[in-house]
Design goal:
single chain, about 375 residues, mainly beta
């Protein structure tokens, strides 16, 4: 297929009415000249066709999104330093209209600390867990039956620093994920080079810190995001400042991490100048792990040994966009969507089920400063 034909085919995919669409795709952004909030698309996982639905909700800096387990509600981390005139960012709750993708606001709650950058829910949909990058803190908020969010029930201010004086002079909680055991939540703190462990109760949320289970990373690593394998036996942390991925064996019974190795996300010989990593995800098949490089503007693909959890480099694929802060798989695991924060676009790739290698489909969605992608099944 020549370049003109490829461009026409991609344009057709972008505008094709999707009567058989199975999913909605929501995009969180940094608001500014080209973005007003959260945007929505219809998506067909059989063909990869994606139809723009426009602005779903007007809101400030919804830079990370989480979907309620029942698929009816969406939560946005509004990455700001103040809320209603007081210090701290906030989260906004929405009801999802599956007919048109629009979001109806259900209310907001303060995150107490500034710059909330990551959200997750527990499997029962009773708690919202939040990491504040700017505040260097973490908290949990109860989720009410109508989908709204109650005031926080637990708050923890992190302490400490590390060796990179320009980025690690203070704590920066960057993500929070509940372990597959359901009893321990893990917070990756870029500023302290640590994974902090917290006890979790579905009825109460986070209840206390578990410092004896905290895990140190190599000085200057800057741990950012964490992903568990589908079998729950391993965890993978992407380190923003050193452009590496650290693998862990996970003991669900004890809620403990044991480090088993670290690999680079960059090509051999690259010294890491001008690059930082961002997102990490384990493929639904459990066979591959993917991580994004900003600056190098690429996705690193690793093969995963299910028994040992160790990673083997497969390839490093340029995204074609700039600054892939976030990427996500569609629910079928056939496609990868990479959000180009500084190129104002989202690029689609086909995933080879046997090798994990990525092939661009030619589909490009234009949206201002995209930084989070979430799929929701249509009822």
């Amino acid at each position: 297929m020549n370049s003109l034909a490829a461009a026409l085919a991609a344009a057709a995919l972008m505008t094709l009415p999707l009567s058989a669409a199975k999913f909605l795709l929501y995009v969180g952004t940094y608001t500014g000249p080209k973005s007003e909030g959260i945007y929505a698309y219809r998506f067909d996982d059989e063909t990869g066709a994606t139809e723009p639905l426009g602005l779903a909700a007007r809101t400030e800096n919804p830079t990370f999104l989480a979907i309620h387990p029942n698929g009816r509600f969406l939560y946005a981390a509004n990455e700001t330093g103040t809320w209603r005139g007081k210090p701290g960012g906030y989260v906004t709750a929405y009801a999802i209209d599956s007919a048109n993708g629009k979001l109806r606001e259900l209310g907001q709650q303060s995150t107490v600390g500034g710059g909330p950058c990551h959200l997750s829910t527990d499997p029962a949909g009773r708690q919202l867990l939040v990491a504040n990058y700017g505040g260097g803190s973490t908290l949990s908020l109860p989720l009410l039956k109508d989908g709204s969010v109650g005031p926080h029930g637990f708050f923890s201010q992190h302490r400490g620093s590390s060796v990179n004086k320009s980025r690690q002079s203070e704590p920066h909680a960057h993500s929070i994920n509940l372990g597959p055991d359901g009893h321990v939540a893990w917070v990756a703190d870029l500023g302290t080079d640590s994974l902090h462990a917290y006890a979790f109760d579905p009825a109460k949320g986070l209840t206390r810190a578990l410092p004896a289970q905290d895990v140190p990373l190599a000085p200057g690593s800057g741990p950012r995001h964490l992903a568990f394998s589908p079998d729950g036996h391993h965890a993978y942390v992407i380190n923003e400042l050193l452009s590496t991925v650290t693998a862990f064996q996970y003991d669900a019974r004890k809620g403990r991490m044991t480090q088993i190795g670290t690999v680079s996300t960059l090509p051999p010989g690259h010294d890491g100048t001008g690059t930082t990593t961002a997102e990490i995800r384990v493929h639904p098949s459990g066979r591959f792990v993917f991580g994004s490089n900003r600056g190098h503007d690429s996705i690193a693909v690793f093969g995963r040994d299910a028994a040992s959890g160790r990673l083997t480099p497969v390839e490093i694929t340029k995204t074609g966009g700039k600054t892939p802060r976030n990427f996500n798989f569609d629910p079928s695991g056939k496609f990868l969507f990479a959000a180009g924060q500084n190129s104002d676009d989202i690029r689609q790739f086909k995933i080879d089920a046997q090798t994990g290698q990525l092939t661009p489909t030619g589909l490009k969605l234009e949206v201002g400063a995209p930084v989070c992608l979430r799929f929701v099944p249509l009822k």
